[in-house]
Design brief:
The protein is α/β, with parallel strands linked by helices and 69 residues long. It has helices at residues 13-29, 42-47; strands spanning 2-6, 35-39, 54-57.
């Protein structure tokens, strides 16, 4: 199973805590073929523990506000 998470707008607080706890629980119950693809800003991705099942994707545009020029 491959699950993609768009976490670009998660930066701190309850959303970040929820994401981290969700991924920690996933690590306990995963099968060898299970994967998570996570798109987010650098700061959020640094809070997620590394695991070979997690593909962390960062692009510089993820650091900007959605209302930029």
């Amino acid at each position: 199973m491959i699950i993609g998470i768009d976490a670009i707008n998660i930066r701190n607080g309850g959303g970040l805590n929820h994401l981290v706890e969700l991924l920690n629980e996933f690590k306990k119950q995963k099968k060898p073929e299970d994967r998570f693809v996570i798109w987010s800003n650098k700061r959020t991705l640094e809070k997620i523990n590394n695991d070979n099942s997690f593909y962390k994707i960062h692009l510089p545009i993820f650091e900007k506000n959605f209302l930029f020029h």
